[in-house]
Amino acid sequence: SVQFKLHKTGGDLVDAMASLQISGRKGKRPAKPTHDTELAHLYELLEPGPTVTDGLDFRKKMVDKLPEEWTVCTIGITPKHDYVLISRLQPGRFPVIVRIPVPQSHSSLVPETRRSTGVTAKASSDSEETESDEDEDSIDATSYLTDDLLTEFARILHDSKMTGAVKVTTTEEKKQWWDDRSRLDDAMRSLVEKMEDSLLGPWKGMLVGPLSHPVAEKIARSVNALSARIQSLSSSHATSEDQPPKRGRGRTAKPAPAKSESTSQWGHERHLQLLEVIFLSVPFLSSEQLRRALEETLGTTFPALSEISHDFRVTFARLAAEMRDHDSPSDMDDSDEEDNNFKLQAPLSEDDISDLLGYVRGRGSEESPSWHKRGPVVLVIDKQVQRLPWEAMPCLENNPGSRVASLLMVNILALQLSPDSAPNLLRDGVDPSETFYVLNPDGDLVKTQARLEDEFNGLGWKGEVQIQPSQDQYTAYLASHDLFVYCGHGSGEQYCRGELIQRLPRCAVTFLMGCSSGVLRDEGDFDPAGVAVSYQVARCPAVIANLWDVTDGDMDRLTAKLVRLWVDEDGDGSSHLPRTRGLLELLPQARQVCQFRYLVGAATVYYGVPVRSTRVLTSKAIKSPLTLPLQTPAKASKPRPVITSSKSTSSTPITSSTPAASH
Q1: Residue 412, C-beta contacts closer than 8 angstroms, at least 6 positions apart
Q2: pLDDT digits (tens, 9 = 90+) for 243-285
């Protein structure tokens, strides 16, 4: 059975947690709302006692009741920092779990052929290894996570903060500033690419969202055909059924001992799910990485690994060609099941395959048809690596991906989708006309105010400019509106403590666009804490926040782009958008407007689960280009009271040709 120990809690648990005892003795059960049986079942998981050990029971309680389009991926680090553990959870399917060795210090520079990973697809009990086996495979990888990855990440953030605070006046100083920021942007891009290759290796597909209909049906048929192809190749070669897979060189994790399946269908389903994960990741894998993934799934003794690896690439490339050549889902021929018979009508060159796989990698951009885009992925990230920008990795950067504090929290948020739940934003949607904003409350973000004030007012939003809200006002804004936008320093916690946010009976979808607004503080043995977690405890469906300090030029441009894409009837004027729009799927597009896409754009993340708007608004503002030099006012305007609406008369481009201050 899948064994998960649920250390984390979530939902409206402030009072419920008070009844739990720290000791191992059984304490009082948390109070359960009698009006919500499903929530009561989740609260039972908080009761001190045994962990969840029954795989089917775990699926029924924690996975199968989630929306079918959601994919939940947990990312964990083993206590010795020697393995990354990733689980992929989808409603109605068995959990897929992979164990990936963390490279030793500086081993990211070593050719990939010297690395290997161990993989287990599980819906039954974990394998047991002997003590000698554990010692043989176990490595001290702390140096890589601390001395290489996390240290490099901290250095980039430190240097970014230093350059963001620099005051420059001369042309030469401005040039040097841009050169320094560009180098840091390149360094952050290199870091996320290193993360992807070193921490995910050939298993990037574990974090990739599924494609929608009818591509999903095509993928299912392709995977079935590839599975039959594997069986055919295996049976056509004389191999010993009892011969175990050979150990490869390097740090190879031993495969799990063979398990007796309750039914052959069970084992077949697990096999197909692993192959599907590999197939989904084909556009993001090198030929060597794809071969390694198949080798670790099928064993090193499997015949014709190169041949089946080529079949995976060609099959996906042909699927990509269908996606590219059809304008709508109905145009795709999903009835011909002989497309995957591997008797190709015309061979594809390696250049053709690379071009077609590159086409799929870029899907999710603003110009992509909606049916080309991937489903949402909800990440539950280990506290040791939660500060890293996972969403910026190449396999995720065009994928709608969010973060939630725990798997239990995912379930508590999802309960709001129930038809018998009280009115809420997740199920009923966000009305963008019910928005309140707080802009430049300290009065020193003059350029931010100049860029965004007319944008917000043009949509008819209410808000305050250069006014510091009281604690009561801040909580009232959150409780009485559908959307709350904060454009000031930090997370706004200086105006309203997280403990008060946690107790709100209702909480607006929130944009916290200040520096480090989404940082979670290290709490030692306990889970990280921060304002973003407080919003989730209040069952806020979505919070946009920043993982580190950012400069205002790029952040204002991202904010305006996201607002235009989500709630403006005309979007950004570059593409047609539906009347109701998902916020999560638009964030990757908004990040692309940043001049420093990794140093600034990668900082902005989405805490929560997918939420949609109920309507769009007709903006009265004169649309400003997001890429022209900024014209800033000579001095700040005077503070003003709450604004109901105003006519927009300026056309201030939302960008900066000069160094920008940090929020």
Answers
A1: 10, 11, 12, 39, 42, 539
A2: 554 444 334 333 334 444 444 555 677 788 899 999 999 999 9
Contact 227, 279 (CB under 8 A): no
Cis preceding linkage at 389, omega within 30: no
Question: For 419-433, what is each residue's pLDDT tens digit?
Answer: 989 999 999 999 999
Q: Is-contact 456 439, C-beta < 8 A?
A: yes
- Whole-model pTM: value is 0.81
pLDDT at residue 357, as a whole number: 84
- The token pair at 455 is 């944008």
Q: Which amino acid is at 188?
A: M
d(CA 452, CA 467): 16
Class of residue 342 by CB neighbours under 10 A (exposed 0-12, middle 13-18, buried 19+): middle
Beta strand spans in 121-252 (E): none
The confidence score (pLDDT) of residue 333 equals 54
- Identity (one letter) of the amino acid at 220? A
Note whether 412 and 608 are within 8 A (CB): no
Tokens of 549: 């300090």
Burial class (CB in 10 A: 0-12, 13-18, 19+), 105: middle
Mean pLDDT of 43-65: 65
Q: What do you get for the CA distance between the two ends of the chain, in Å?
A: 48
For 17-53, how does the pLDDT look when each residue is reduced to its tens digit (9 = 90+)? 333 333 333 444 444 444 456 656 665 655 544 444 4
Range name among 178-192, 291-305, 553-567 with the lowest pLDDT average: 291-305
Which token pair is 9?
Answer: 């809690």
- CA–chain centroid gap for 329, Å, is 26
CA dist 407 → 78, 380, 567 (Å): 18, 7, 30
Q: In whole angstroms, what separates CA 561 from the centre of its chain?
A: 19
Structure tokens at 199: 């921490």
Length of the chain: 663
The residues, any chain, with a CB within 8 Å of residue 422's CB and separated by 6 or more, are none
Q: At what angle do helices 287-298 and 264-280 cross, to 10 degrees?
A: 170
Q: What number of H helices and E strands is found in the chain?
A: 20, 15
